[in-house]
Design a protein that fits this description.
heterodimer; A: about 425 residues; alpha/beta; five-stranded mixed beta sheet; four-stranded parallel beta sheet; 16 helices; about 45% helix; B: about 160 residues; alpha+beta; four-stranded mixed beta sheet; binds flavin mononucleotide; binds iron/sulfur cluster; binds FE2/S2 (inorganic) cluster
Chain lengths: ~425, ~160
């Protein structure tokens, strides 16, 4: 198994500067500073690395979109990790904070940035404190601060804590939150690369994305691009949760099949039950039935079966599950997390929750399922930010694939009232 | 009256250095977090004090504060238990364990014990999904919970 991010992840002192250096940490910096910033951007482009936060946008391309000659510029690392099912960034932050720092240094040098922020979700208070320590260590060693390793390049990195709102993971809401405002999304364009933090050009990348960069620098773009499929390069951390014997974060090479992840890495289904469905990329992507278990885990293959790779959270459901309960749980989540700025999402998520609640508690009627589909239709592509579409995904896909689960609950009720 | 502790003052100094001088407003969430941790809630006095420090209006501070669920208007217990009820934890039986915890503490979900020791909240995903069912008590994550484990954890807190 090729390991890039999780190589030595369980080594005891990896989280310390010393432990990280023993594994070759910070070795790439000297090499990087001998290169032109643009060359590093090109290198990341050539590696094929795509954003690991959810949208899968090519990282090098994103960096090259920064408004020309406008300074200062900022880097914001997205450590909000709040997509249900996702727990990979937390493991990276906890066990290898210096890897992120090195990735941020390389990105900042490439993009001519002198200030970086790491936006942690508020519940990561302890991780932010650990990161503060790691930043201080790196400073002491001259990897951060003024004139890093005599290169003339300056960089400071600061931690910043949110306060518990899922929407703050969305990049423009994150910027508003970091500026001391309510975490509501902004209109795009302008995109952050043109007007981001404090109206300045800003790069926003996920923790995992930035953690890949040191490998690319040390080993070359080709080494990275040699892994994976034609369009999905490299490795991906997959958070496997739900009904598997060995839940956990696994690093896979892109294109490994879902079957291999569930049955080989995660040990198969609990009690050797039957697989019913899986959600491949966190709660915001459509669920798929078990007969699609041989799909390769990469952006294109998952898209081809009507779902998405998303944040890389594989949630596994066995045959004991009635998907109405699953949809209800997620509908409740999106209702809570809707920021309330636009009507289709604010109202739609509430209606979805109410109807699902009725069905789940045996008060459903046959027409309710059509009503749900209708609400989904009224939300899809009509909301201000992607949260609205995210809320639709679990509900609509569960109806499309497992209509019988809905009918079963509704019929049971109709039968009861008939007596 | 609200006043930041000495320890908090030291942190405020550090916090203010993180942002450009004309962008002090960025320190709003970090300062609210300090107040929440110090008093276990954020009251109007604290909001006024934070507004004063950051040259903001108290109304603005209030409007931002109310957006974020981690700031509470009523004091929470010494131990704030956030129990994840989202999908991965639900698939692994968090509902029964949450009910058990509420019963054990003899409070409703969302409530606080009379001695102000425990507050119990339902929480959305806390990024420990492969360790579900899980809860966070103050800053500590507890994963792979069982009834026995919960009893033992609660018993160990004084
Ligand atoms: C509702 C919503 C929540 C999001 N939450 C996160 C998150 O917790 N972490 C993250 O890295 N990206 C999250 N994103 C994606 C970000 O908006 C952004 O695309 C990402 O941070 C860019 O980094 P990348 O290109 O490295 O993936 C979220 C997006 C939406 C619409
Ligand atoms: S889609 Fe939902 S979260 Fe996004 S802006 Fe509209 S109300 Fe807010
Ligand atoms: S679903 Fe419970 S921690 Fe993610």
């Amino acid at each position: 198994m090729t390991q890039i991010l999780f190589k030595n992840i369980n080594k005891k002192n990896l989280h310390t500067l010393e432990g990280y250096e023993q594994e070759g940490g910070y070795q790439g910096l000297k090499k990087a500073f001998a290169m032109k910033p643009e060359e590093i951007v090109e290198m990341v482009k050539a590696s094929g690395l795509r954003g690991r936060g959810g949208a899968g946008f090519p990282t090098g391309l994103k960096w090259s979109f920064l408004a020309k000659d406008v300074f200062p510029r900022y880097l914001c690392c997205n450590a909000d990790e709040s997509e249900p099912g996702t727990c990979k960034d937390r493991e990276l932050l906890q066990k290898n904070p210096h890897l992120l720092i090195e990735g941020m240094i390389l990105c900042s040098y490439a993009c001519k940035i002198e200030t970086g922020y790491i936006y942690f979700r508020g519940e990561f208070y302890d991780l932010a404190e650990m990161m503060d320590k790691a930043i201080a260590e790196a400073h002491e060693k001259g990897y951060l601060g003024q004139n890093i390793l005599g290169s003339g390049f300056n960089l400071d990195i600061h931690t910043h804590l949110g306060a518990g709102a899922y929407i703050c993971g969305e990049e423009s809401a994150l910027l508003n939150s970091l500026e001391g405002g309510r975490g509501e999304p902004r209109m795009k364009p302008p995109f952050p690369a043109v007007q981001g933090l404090y109206e300045k050009p800003t790069v926003i990348n996920n923790v995992e994305t930035l953690c890949v960069v040191p490998f690319i620098l040390n080993n070359g773009a080709e080494k990275y691009a040699a892994l994976g499929t034609e369009k999905s390069k490299g490795t991906k951390l997959v958070s496997v949760s739900g009904h598997v014997k060995k839940p956990g974060n696994y690093e896979i090479v892109m294109g490994t099949t879902v079957r291999e992840i569930i049955y080989d890495l995660a040990g198969g289904i609990r009690d050797d039950n039957e697989l019913k469905a899986y959600i491949p990329g966190g709660s915001s992507v459509p669920m798929v039935p078990a007969d699609k278990v041989d799909t390769p885990y990469d952006y294109e293959s998952l898209q081809a079966i009507g779902t998405m790779l998303g944040s890389g959270a594989l949630i596994v459901l066995d045959h004991t599950v009635n998907v109405v309960e699953t949809s209800l749980r997620l509908a409740s989540f999106y209702m809570h997390e809707s920021c309330g700025k636009c009507t289709p999402c604010r109202e739609g998520t509430r209606w979805m929750w109410q109807i699902l609640q009725q069905i789940q508690t045996g008060k459903g009627e046959a027409a309710y399922v059509e009503k749900l589909v209708d609400i989904c239709d009224n939300m899809s592509f009509k909301c201000f930010c992607p949260l609205g579409d995210a809320a639709v995904a679990p509900v609509l896909s569960s109806i499309q694939n497992f209509r019988a689960d809905y009918d079963e609950l509704i019929e049971k009720m109709t039968a009861n009232t008939a007596v | 009256m609200f006043a930041f502790s000495k320890e908090a003052e030291k942190q405020i100094e550090k916090i203010l250095k993180k942002y450009p001088e004309d962008r002090k407003r960025s320190a709003l969430l970090p300062l609210l977090t300090l107040a929440q941790r110090q008093e276990r809630h954020v009251n109007p006095d604290a909001m006024r004090e934070i507004a004063r420090r950051l040259d903001l209006s108290p109304a603005y501070v209030q409007s931002v504060c109310s957006f974020y669920p981690m700031y509470s208007s009523k004091p929470v217990g010494k131990y704030l238990i956030l129990f994840c009820i989202n999908i991965s934890c639900q698939l692994n039986g968090c509902d029964e364990l949450l009910a058990h915890t509420a019963k054990k503490l003899n409070i409703e979900i969302g409530g606080t014990t009379d001695d102000m020791k425990f507050t119990l909240h339902r929480e959305e995903c806390l990024a420990a999904c492969s360790g579900g069912p899980m809860m966070r008590i103050n800053d500590t994550f507890y994963e792979n919970l069982t009834v026995d484990k919960i009893d033992q954890i609660l018993g160990s807190l004084d």
